[in-house]
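Why do we care about 3D structure at all? Because function follows from shape, and shape follows, mostly, from sequence. That is the central idea of this module. The next example makes it concrete: a single protein chain, its amino acid sequence, and then its structure expressed as tokens.
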Amino acid sequence: MTAAVEIAGFCHPRYARVRDAFAAGFRERDEIGAGVAVVADGECVVELWAGHADPARTRSWRRDTIVHLYSATKGMSALCALRLVERGALDLDAPVARYWPEFAQAGKGPVSVRWLLSHRAGLPALRRRLPPDALYDGAAMGRALAEAEPCVTPGQVSYHPVTYGWLVGELVRRADGRSLGRFFRDEIGEPLGADLHIGLGPAEEARAADITRVAPPPEIAAAFAGAQGDELPLVALAFMNPSGTGDHNCASHRRAEIPAINAHGTAQALARVYGALARGGELSGVRVLSPATIEAARSEQARGLDPLMHAPVRMGLGYWLSQPGVPGYAYGPNEGAFGHPGAGGSIGFADPAARIGFGYVTNRMGRSIEVDERPQALIDALYAC
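And the structure:
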């Protein structure tokens, strides 16, 4: 148990339980620095931050501190592709190879845009080992994925932990011409006033919190323990090939566009994006998506036990759909909620039934890729209000 910290920001009195749960995270759950935000029917009702922006506790966490979001990035990347679907630049049921001809190699011709967005492209991992610097080279990763033979049967749901971002990013680039990070900034981040970035410039880099080292999730640690020689199991390759420098606080990692895992942002940014999606796609006069596209995004595309991670998945078009009653996979009590957690703890989601957008960010990395106990306590407190 640690000493109490000063909680900064704003909390509507109706949501006092969220503030209490946030403070408890520092007293009881070893938070270093964190933020939480809630947008209810277009209004910010919670925006809180506290703690330190580095594990050594030398820098205070500020309102404009941004932090690594890991797979919470994927919800933003999917949003970029869905905007292109909405304007007719991408067709969900067209083959990916219509836009990216090289992708048809190695039997991947039938893979559709719908399959790619819903983690059914058959490429959760690359069997060919790649050099660490490939993590920061989107063009090299696009070539490797285009050449690769599927390692899971296409059409079968299998969560793509890292390859998902390069797949979606290349599809966006082919259909639009902009990189995914630039597309997000131009079309979503800046118009909506969402302080979230996929690939940092110098100004953003100066505001970034340092995170603790990510410990492998238990399923990955077990896979490494069972490996023989240099032969890594597929689940380990999915997370670790390529693995970069291992230091996700370094400049090369922060400046690169790794559209599955390295967005940096605030809790308020996540809550604003999902707050728009929770109320038909519009917030503060900015339209993110149409109601029809949102309904398509949160429609169930696949459900089952992930063959690599042995986790229960319920997948929309780029979003994990809530599974009420399933620990680690529920975003509150409403089945229609959708969003994306990130390894380490960060999460954003939308609940259209409650018209709520939620965001939580942290720099103390937990071990799970599911909903961490810290945001879970905040989500429980939110719905208790």
